[in-house]
Amino acid sequence: MTGLTGGKMSSSIPASHISLLDDPAEGYDKVKAATTGGRETAEEQRELGGEADECPVYELYAYLLSGDDDEFATEVYEECVGGERLCGGCKEQAAELMEQFLEDHQEKREEWADRLEELDIDFDTDRR
């Protein structure tokens, strides 16, 4: 995946990636600040369409935010390249989905941490 800033994802550049441990509000903000495959103006975007194949935000839809709903990812793509979808609204929707994804993930993570604690399993021991 392309980093949110348009280059490579890098752990040394926090704005380029979203960690599963990021605060959901921070994930929202990172998506809202992400580079897009949009045109210079909304008018150009409507006329020429966006460049979804070069858009880190679209990659989030394709790889994560659509879940198992391939039709949703395809719809986002077609609306983008067709000029119907503008980057501001697309990023807002993606940011909200990312925030919800992180909230859900972290809630499940906490539930499993509690379950593992109940089982009293020590993952730090050498098992041979």
How does this model look, in words?
The chain is mainly alpha-helical. It has a single domain (14-119), classed as Tyrosyl-Transfer RNA Synthetase (Orthogonal Bundle). 55% of the residues lie in helices and 0% in strands. The chain has helices at 24-32, 42-48, 56-65, 70-81, 87-119. Helix 1 runs antiparallel to helix 5 and helix 3 packs antiparallel against helix 4. The radius of gyration is 18 Å and the shape is elongated. The N and C termini lie far apart (37 Å). The model has no long low-confidence stretch (mean pLDDT 91).
What features would you highlight for this structure?
elongated, Tyrosyl-Transfer RNA Synthetase, mainly alpha
Top CATH class: Mainly Alpha
State the secondary-structure class.
mainly alpha
CATH superfamily: Tyrosyl-Transfer RNA Synthetase
CATH topology: Tyrosyl-Transfer RNA Synthetase
- Helical content (DSSP H or I, runs of 4+): 55-70%
Give me the count of strands.
0
What number of domains? 1
- Assembly annotation: single chain
Q: Please state roughly what percent of the residues sit in beta strands, choosing from under 5%, 5-15%, 15-25%, 25-35%, 35-45% or over 45%.
A: under 5%
> What overall geometry do the principal axes of the alpha carbons give?
elongated
